[in-house]
């Protein structure tokens, strides 16, 4: 595919692509495997074979990719996650993704990227989503969410106004000292939960 990722996935201001684990499974991964249209386009990329900073799109933002499942060995089940500069290592056991009726939809696994030399851990993380029962004889896909863990996300400007601030809508003199300034909101709880 020859397109610029940022142009292709441009959303209207105020909208964010932040699907839940269940939405990823039901509305994106299952339809992709069944060759059905997706409600919103997700680009395809070799996430497990590429260094995270070389993936399409803004590397400072969280990104979602559809990725074919490729195993280390022809008859094996282990996914190959080695890149030119390092590898993706799992951080914990797989988490089951279930629907509202507790039906098992698939798994979510978290990985951290390690550099080959000197084998150091980076701030790059990946959530890998796979369906529970892959269909035999059909190309199997997974969805990968790639992001920098310690990146502070700019959620926009927040204006703080003192309680005694006089808007001075009538055009007369105001004794108020006025506007207290602009700060950028940091939503650390949201960042740390991802």
UniProtKB/TrEMBL annotation:
<feature type="region of interest" description="Disordered">
    <location>
        <begin position="70"/>
        <end position="95"/>
    </location>
</feature>
<keyword id="KW-0805">Transcription regulation</keyword>
<protein>
    <submittedName>
        <fullName>Transcription factor NAM family</fullName>
    </submittedName>
</protein>
<feature type="domain" description="NAC">
    <location>
        <begin position="11"/>
        <end position="149"/>
    </location>
</feature>
<keyword id="KW-0804">Transcription</keyword>
<dbReference type="GO" id="GO:0006355">
    <property type="term" value="P:regulation of DNA-templated transcription"/>
</dbReference>
<keyword id="KW-0238">DNA-binding</keyword>
<dbReference type="InterPro" id="IPR036093">
    <property type="entry name" value="NAC_dom_sf"/>
</dbReference>
<dbReference type="Pfam" id="PF02365">
    <property type="entry name" value="NAM"/>
</dbReference>
<feature type="compositionally biased region" description="Polar residues">
    <location>
        <begin position="74"/>
        <end position="95"/>
    </location>
</feature>
<dbReference type="GO" id="GO:0003677">
    <property type="term" value="F:DNA binding"/>
</dbReference>
<keyword id="KW-0539">Nucleus</keyword>
<dbReference type="InterPro" id="IPR003441">
    <property type="entry name" value="NAC-dom"/>
</dbReference>
